[in-house]
């Protein structure tokens, strides 16, 4: 496979596991195309054209130094210059792939947050409420990433002549879809039963071994879980803490997430909502693994780095 084919497969798998469904994703792209058409010539020039075809702007190809057949990839959750040097040192790496975005992907992280409104609406929060709170959160995320040195690692890849890309939103969608299929059951009685299911997933088992396993951060193990919602895995980054109260009032008893702030915990406790953190890097690994399985099936060798726990499911 060439780099563009690997990238296209990631986007395709991301759409297939997207909370919004294929139609929902197409609507988002259609909206962006309409917006683009209405821009002035100058604004069109500045517009990130990738937004017209790629629904996950936090997933990008940053550098193609040599457009060759990819046989071996160094994959990591976070890639910076040190992993790029590691790839150079190994000598036979055709592509370096990060999970977390950098460069233009990081600058566009807020774009991925937009889907949080649809995720919360799926669990019963009125769309007007979910959209209003998500809009505020998008602005916060955009401001917080705007001070980053986005291009640092991209510049290093260019200097070293290394092929470099990342897969973020699609991998998080895959992790959320996997957890949704496994955990959203009505035969689980307590938060502790839910926890037991989670601890049997190999990525979380390994996270427990290294002291970073799942944690109940709001509620008690013996609490009944009620309706379970996977709201805090896909959607780029943490949501608005105010959504904790809203989703509780919408009928959810337990939220499973991968990054939940202290503010989320307080809001959840006030709304008697249980929160189970599945683990951040372990959930990132889970999502990447579901994608990497498809690459390995095509004969591509994966070298793990930077926190990636590789588990094959084929
Ligand atoms: Fe992450």
Structural class of the secondary elements? alpha/beta
Tally of strands: 9
How many helix segments? 15
Please indicate the percent range of residues in DSSP E strands (runs of 2 or more).
5-15%
Strand sequence of the main sheet, in spatial order? 1-4-3-2-9
Largest sheet: 5 strands, mixed
Can you tell me the residue ranges where pLDDT is under 50 for at least 5 consecutive residues?
Answer: none
Radius of gyration, whole Å: 20 Å
N→C terminal distance: 19 Å
Using the alpha-carbon principal axes, give the shape. Answer: globular
> Mean pLDDT, as a whole number?
95
Share of helix among residues? 40-55%
**What is bound: which ligands?**
fe (ii) ion
Series of H and E elements? HHHEEHEHHHHHEHHHEEHEHEHE
